[in-house]
Amino acid sequence: MILHSAKGKVSAKDRCLQIMDFNATTSAGAMDLNAFYRTRSRTDLSVGFDMQLQDIDVGEFIKLYPEIDSLLPMIRSFEGIINSQMAATAKIDTNMNFLLSTVEGVARIKGDSLVLMDGETFAEIAKMMKFKNRERNLVDSIAVEVSIKDNTIEVYPFIMKMDRYTTAISGRQDMDMNLDYHISVLKSPVPMRLGIDIKGNFDDFKIRIGKAKYKSTALPVFTKQIDSTRINLREQIRNIYK
């Protein structure tokens, strides 16, 4: 990643590095970051960060933060520009890799006019629902909120519009990529609501048609929980020496 401009504050003491109010214009987009890196011992390493990225390309996003591909595999199916907010703490190994089972955090990802590219899961759904374009579909807008805790990724309900359909999507998965997702079809060429359940893992999953869990675009809102968790993590970073 190329930093065209950058500024921030760095402190180091008590086996801990703290980065505060770091702002940068980069080759991938604009970045705001607060973070810490702590080494209590050679076998007790941890990191925490609160990061906001603006107008960043999805492909570049995954290149910069490959762990995101493991935490949110659905992201790799999109192409376009997104904005994201993420805050998390995690243990790491001596090669600086996240120990996924220790990750706790939240993420919010928004994008407009994204392209949903072909993928195995999408291909199955597109075939089943008779999409006009089964290879690339334009998504009007998307806003996904996610929490990660106790080895589980919770994807809160969100709306996605594409092709001739309006859908509400939610679900969860564990760090072993076992998934349990639901798609409620709220608007389609067929004047009826239906639900699509996807269970299994990304190598072996089953898709079943059933009842729609959500009845309209008025979905439960979890914004306060996401914001509250992010604020708490930000305070942990700010008060790391205390």
Structure description:
The protein has 242 residues and is of the alpha+beta class. It is 16% helix and 55% strand. The chain has 4 helices and 13 strands. It has helices at 58-64, 67-71, 120-129, 223-238; strands at 3-13, 16-26, 30-41, 44-57, 78-79, 81-92, 104-116, 137-149, 152-162, 165-174, 178-187, 194-201, 204-210. Strands 1, 2, 3, 4, 5, 6, 7, 8, 9, 10, 11, 12 and 13 form a 13-stranded antiparallel sheet that branches. The chain is elongated. The two termini are 32 Å apart.
SS-based class:
alpha+beta
Q: Indicate the proportion of strand residues.
A: over 45%
The proportion of residues forming helix, as a percent range, comes to: 10-25%
Q: What is the tally of beta strands?
A: 13
- Indicate the radius of gyration in whole angstroms: 19 Å
User: DSSP helix count?
Assistant: 4
Summarize model confidence as the mean pLDDT. Answer: 85
Shape: elongated
The SSE string, one letter per element, is EEEEHHEEEHEEEEEEH
Distance between the termini: 32 Å
Unreliably modeled segments:
none
> How is the biggest beta sheet arranged?
13 strands, antiparallel
